[in-house]
Structure formats: structure tokens, C-alpha cells
Write a structure and sequence with these properties.
Layout lengths: L18 H4 L12 E7 L1 E3 L7 E3 L4 E9 L13 E3 L4 E3 L8 E3 H4 L8 E2 L9 E2 L5 H5 L1 E7 L16 H8 L4 E7 L1 H4 L4 H4 L8 H13 L3 E4 L8 H6 L2 H4 L5 E5 L2 H5 L4 H18 L4 E6 L14 H11 L5 E5 H8 L5 H4 L9 H15 L3
Parallel strand pairs: 2-7, 11-12, 11-13, 13-14, 14-15
Antiparallel strand pairs: 1-10, 3-6, 4-10, 5-6, 8-9
Helix pairs in contact: 7-15, 11-12
């Protein structure tokens, strides 16, 4: 992403995580299951005298497991957490081992370590860190529920990607390229920060799911670069075309929004990328990813741009191109969840749970139920 995103990343991945090691399929859409696996929580104590709390997306019928996001520490109901049915939230009693932050710690003074300037209120910074800091503060919960997801869902789009689906169904080799910014590079996925459980970023989760479902040999290339916007994407297309892609996942937008790029210019840049790739690889098809939302309290975010960019991408979708709408999903998630629950750095990167949601949205386009 842009230089102000404080780029700290690792070129080499930690040992890859297999789906079986999590105990569930990380690319299985959460909205089709009655078990919520590994929903991430970040506990905040909002005021003196209140218990630290974090809300759940669904009302649990049975809580199966609550643990650290590293999966190394399991927490005990009644001792480490309490379920508050009225608030549909977990609360931390006195003496809980679960980490939390106070509201004041989430809005540290300007100049504080592990913070980023500036909060939109102009009075403070925001708690921020790259690497595994947020991961180590987050908790994950697995539970069964009877709820129905009323937010956006992604439907199979095989008819719009006939070449890709034909190769997959015939178990032919497929070249997939993921082209984007630091989110697509994989920043803050535990596999990249070398933290347990070493979950790969969303791009690898997508490829692993396609291999599992279809049995095709898939060559995966990821030239995504932290700090890049569509300007760099247009200028460096050889990184994509050298891979001779059958399917290109284009995922720019966070940095373009931070730079307040006009939506029509954003659309023109994406179109230019698609045209350049098609000139070199006429049969290439595309998944166009509408970005997650940045922290709305961060001045580097631009909430008004994300839906406009999504709408521009939607206009480009016809046969050979489909939309992966993370923008609408994040809009719905943030009606219940805090940004700290699903971010890996506090402002503009996904955590493991959110990388899985990216993968679930994209694989839903490519895998028919």
C-alpha cells in the first residue's frame, strides 16, 4: 500500500497451514453454515466500571471454543469470559486471561508508539501496528447458531468465467495471478507474520480451495506490492502477463481511495489493466475485487470512495469479468463488529478472519454449491 501504511512485511512465508489443521475449511463461506468458525474479537473496555466486551455476528446456540487467535491458549467460560445474551457479546470478568485494551489505549496521544496519526477528531492518534501485534491481542470463538445472514452473499458466477470453469472442470492446468496492493500481498495474515496458526493470505486460500474442489494443477503468481495503487498497477503489467494468466484477480482500491482518486480515473486504470492483459493473453478472464473498508476514524481512509469504486468495477463486469464485492460485505460486518475485531493492523489490512472472508467471497464465485 502507500508509504504511509508503514510497510513492514516478510518475503518468505512461515510454514503453510493446511485446512485440516484448523479443523475446518477456511474458504467455506460463513453464510452457508450454522457453525461460525474462528470469528475474531478484540476486547475493549469502554469505560471505568464496565467489563471489556466484544460482539458476535450471530447469537450462539452453543459456544464450542474460545481461544487466542494463535490457537495456543484456550479460554474457560465463567473464568475468562461470560456470554451476555442481551448484548450478544462476550464480556471479560475480573481476572480473565483474555487480553484487552481500554478506550484510552485505542486513542493514544499524538506521538505515541504503536499508533498512527491521525484520528479524524484531530485530538489523538489511533492504536496501530504492523506485524502480529493485533493478532496477539485478538481472540477467536467457534460456535453453533440458528441465525440467518441477512447481509450480502456471493453467488456462483461460472457462466461469466467460461474459460476458467472449463479448465477447472476438465482438470486442466490453470494459471492464476493475484495483482494488487498490500492486502493482496498478504500483510497481517499470520502466515506472513510468522505467527501461529500460520494461516496463508487470501490468495493462497483461494488457490488451495480450487485445487481441492477441482483437482486441477494451478500455477499461482502474486506480484502484489505493498504501497501500490492503480497507477503502479498499470505501469507494471509485465509482472502479470509474464505468467500467461488464465485468470487474473485484480484487487486495487485501498490506496486509490486514500489518495482520493476520482472514481472515473480509477475505472479507467482498471480498464487499462484489463486491456493490456488481454492484448498479451486474449483468453484471460478477471475477478475484480472491491476492497474492504479502511478504519473510518483514520484520516488516511476515504469512506465515500469505497462504494463508488465498487460501482465502477460492477460496470466492467460482463462475460469474462466478475465482481468480488468485499466492500458491501465489510459495510455489513461493521454494523456489528468493531474495525479492531477484523483488522490486522488497526487501519487498512485484514486479519486472519478477514483474509478468510476475502477467500470465501472469491471462491463462491468459482465453486458451485
Amino acid at each position: 500500500m502507500r508509504s504511509f501504511a508503514f510497510i513492514v512485511f516478510f518475503v518468505a512465508f512461515a510454514p503453510s497451514l493446511r485446512a485440516g489443521e484448523l479443523g475446518y475449511d477456511p474458504a467455506e463461506p460463513f453464510w452457508v453454515s450454522k457453525t461460525m468458525n474462528g470469528e475474531s474479537l478484540f476486547f475493549v473496555k469502554q469505560a471505568e466500571g464496565e467489563k471489556p466486551s466484544a460482539k458476535l455476528l450471530f447469537t450462539p446456540e452453543k459456544i464450542l471454543r474460545v481461544s487466542s487467535a494463535t490457537l495456543e491458549v484456550e479460554y474457560v467460560e465463567g473464568k475468562d469470559y461470560i456470554f451476555d445474551k442481551a448484548a450478544n457479546a462476550l464480556l471479560l470478568p475480573e481476572g480473565s486471561k483474555i487480553p484487552f485494551k481500554t478506550r484510552a489505549e485505542m486513542y493514544p496521544p499524538k506521538g505515541s508508539k504503536q499508533s498512527i496519526g491521525a484520528c479524524v477528531d484531530g485530538k489523538s492518534n489511533l492504536f496501530f501496528s504492523e506485524g502480529r501485534v493485533f493478532h496477539d491481542l485478538q481472540t477467536v470463538v467457534t460456535y453453533t447458531h440458528a441465525g440467518t445472514w441477512n447481509g450480502p452473499v456471493t453467488k456462483f458466477a461460472g457462466a461469466q468465467l467460461p474459460g476458467t470453469l472449463a479448465k477447472l472442470k476438465q482438470k486442466e492446468p490453470l494459471s492464476v495471478v493475484l495483482y494488487g496492493d498490500s492486502i493482496s500481498h498478504g500483510l497481517n495474515a499470520s502466515g506472513l507474520t510468522k505467527a501461529p496458526p500460520f494461516q496463508p493470505p487470501y490468495g493462497q486460500l483461494v488457490v488451495d480451495k480450487l485445487k481441492k474442489v477441482y483437482g486441477s494443477e494451478i500455477t499461482f503468481t502474486n506480484p502484489s506490492v505493498p504501497g501500490w495503487s492503480t497507477n503502479q498497477g498499470v505501469a507494471n503489467l509485465k509482472k502479470v502477463t509474464d505468467a500467461k494468466p488464465d485468470l487474473v484477480i485484480i484487487a486495487f482500491g485501498m490506496n486509490d481511495a486514500s489518495g482520493r482518486m476520482a472514481p472515473e480515473k480509477y475505472s479507467a486504470a482498471i480498464t487499462q489493466m484489463m486491456t493490456g492483459i488481454k492484448q498479451a493473453q486474449p483468453n484471460a478472464e478477471f475477478v475484480l475485487v472491491a476492497t474492504m473498508l479502511g478504519n473510518p476514524e483514520w484520516t488516511g481512509a476515504s469512506p465515500e470512495h469505497y462504494p463508488k469504486f465498487r460501482d465502477e468495477l460492477a460496470k466492467l463486469c460482463k462475460e469474462g469479468a466478475v465482481l468480488a464485492d468485499c466492500t458491501s460485505m465489510w459495510t455489513e460486518l461493521l454494523k456489528t463488529k468493531k474495525i479492531a475485531d477484523i483488522t490486522g493492523n488497526g487501519v487498512n489490512h485484514p486479519n486472519d478472519f478477514a483474509h478468510r472472508i476475502y477467500a470465501q467471497i472469491i471462491t463462491s464465485l468459482l465453486v458451485e454449491k
